Amino acid sequence: MPISLLDARHRTVAALGVAQTLAWASSYYLPALLAQAMARELGLAPATVFAAFSVALLASAVVGPSAGRCIDRWGGRPVLMLSNGVFALGLLALSQAQGLWSLFGAWLILGLAMGGGLYEAAFATLVRLYGREARNSITGITLIAGFASTVGWPLTGWLEAHWGWRAACLAWAGLHLLLALPLNFSVPRAQGLAAAAPEPAGAQDSPVVEGVPAGAPAWRAVLILSWVFAVTWFISTAMAAHLPRLLMASGVSLAAAVAVGALIGPAQVAARLLEFGVLRHVHPLLSARLATLLHPVAAALLALLGAPLASAFALLHGAGNGILTIAKGTLPLVLFGPQGYGQRQGWLMVPARVAQALAPWWFGLCLDRWGAQALWLSCGLGLLAFLALLALPKPLPDRT
């Protein structure tokens, strides 16, 4: 590939990565810092704020397939730019919320933006631009946006401490318009898919074209991936919502739980670097199987041995989650090809978004009842996801 094209691709990945960092920091990672302050000022329980956030996740599941279809047709630039406007509108509405209904309405708007502005849309944008060659670019975006919580939480906390949660929401709205919108505008216009990545003869007649033998039923792979994505997003969201409490139930002090939790982010980024450097030479299905197995191993170790294995749990869980984020983008690409990727990705992620919305509540109930032994639930679900991936046909050599 010519150097000029490589440089252009690197600029695109960098722009999308920074825009994704901002999008995640101002939506998915916002309630962790602002929920208490919002609830206190609005006279609501913190759980009500998280319920509104769950509504946003459900709205994103509804919007996802339509956003993906639009990206398949027109490319990702207009969809991502529109999402920045909707993000800004939702954050503005959130900054002006005065009670229950205005809070839920603001998060509903933010959910619409999330459905067309988070990873799935960015992945579909890259596939629309680069076809089967998008795998490394997808990894590049996750390497940058993997720092969304690292950047977002301190900035949100600083804004809230100095000017309050309403000003923090307004600041994030401004960043969407002043920073993320121009970055997404810099993404190249999508050309015809065939020009960017020519399809092999007969590819459109066989949905499973690269990693799985052509005779494998497409519906079986779709169901398996939907299940795996739902389970893995349930686990990652449950851990994100309850990790300090879970570690304390395992015998870890509060200060140590915070320190251990800080290991997850670096573990995710390190695993993505491993994917970018070493695992890119193997089929994504194999790396996904390995990643899916890491949480069950980590959960079993922590449930059996307790506090001494807390750091190992965080590192293994974080590493698995880091690679699985990439797998959510690359597996559908290599198994089904780039044609119709965006809409298919949207449908594949609907169960995952629903599971994600329910995870904090469901796992919280399990933690209330069983304490640290609730880890056996996430361990068992992770093993079922691993077995589901084993049920996919043996991958052919990866040619992407």
From TrEMBL:
Membrane topology field: Multi-pass membrane protein
Annotated Major facilitator superfamily (MFS) profile domain residues: 12-397
Record-linked InterPro entries: MFS, MFS_dom, MFS_trans_sf, MFS_Transporters
Lineage: Bacteria, Pseudomonadati, Pseudomonadota, Betaproteobacteria, Burkholderiales
UniProt-recorded Gene Ontology molecular function terms: transmembrane transporter activity
Keywords for this protein: Cell membrane, Membrane, Transmembrane, Transmembrane helix, Transport
Membrane-spanning residues: 12-30, 42-67, 79-98, 104-126, 138-157, 163-183, 221-241, 247-274, 370-392
Keyword tRNA-binding: no
Subcellular locations according to the entry: Cell membrane
Listed name of the protein: MFS transporter
GO cellular component: plasma membrane
